[in-house]
Design goal:
By secondary structure, the chain is an alpha+beta fold. It is built from six helices and eleven strands. The relative contact order is 0.18.
């Protein structure tokens, strides 16, 4: 009996995302048609599929990028509430109730959902296995075309180069409505936002 090659034994890395990263799509593209119409996502993550559906496995650099990205989301949400007149303490408490804390500690990925769940035991720490962390984070992850993601969290070194993001018409409307997350680049790069060419 022939043994499987290394290429067959090794899982293939792909880009994954979840519905929480989905950008608003056009009204005519609902449900499965949204993907066919090129629905965009704020973020994609490089990883491999776990045996459990909806779960992925990612390496340490990707986990670090995910933690930085999530912290920026929390900070942006807190800043929004402060701009609306809330005290900083109140803004932090509010965001703690909707966005968990995700961070690395002693090499383990900590997911602290105690405030979100209202449960003092809702905290987990995940150690890597064979160099990868098993990620669920309360979402259902699925493969997506990398071209549909504004930002990809991968294991490449951060760059000081400028990233360019091309927006479609409905994305421009979302940005005009105050969506600032599109211009957040997780590789610490400056981001230049360009409108797409007008449709004929």
């Amino acid at each position: 009996m022939s043994r499987p090659s290394n290429a067959r034994r090794q899982a293939t890395a792909s880009v994954f995302t979840h519905d929480g990263f989905a950008r608003p799509h056009s009204p005519e593209a609902d449900g499965d048609a949204a993907h066919d119409a090129g629905r965009r996502y704020r973020t994609g993550v490089i990883g491999v599929a776990d045996r459990e559906p909806g779960v992925i496995r990612v390496n340490r650099p990707v986990v670090e990028a995910m933690c930085r990205h999530h912290q920026r989301l929390r900070e942006a949400a807190i800043a929004d509430h402060v701009r609306d007149g809330e005290a900083l303490e109140d803004a932090i408490c509010y965001v703690d109730g909707i966005l968990p804390r995700i961070f690395l500690l002693d090499g383990q990925l900590v997911l602290d959902q105690r405030h979100v769940a209202g449960d003092s035991d809702a905290i987990t720490a995940t150690a890597p296995r064979r160099g990868r962390y098993r990620i669920g984070l309360g979402y259902t992850w699925y493969r997506v075309d990398a071209r549909l993601c504004d930002t990809i969290l991968d294991d490449k070194p951060s760059s000081t180069a400028t990233a360019t993001i091309v927006l479609r018409h409905n994305d421009l409307q979302a940005l005009a409505a105050g969506d600032e997350l599109l211009a957040t680049d997780t590789a610490d790069r400056q981001v230049r936002v360009l409108p797409a060419a007008p449709l004929p």
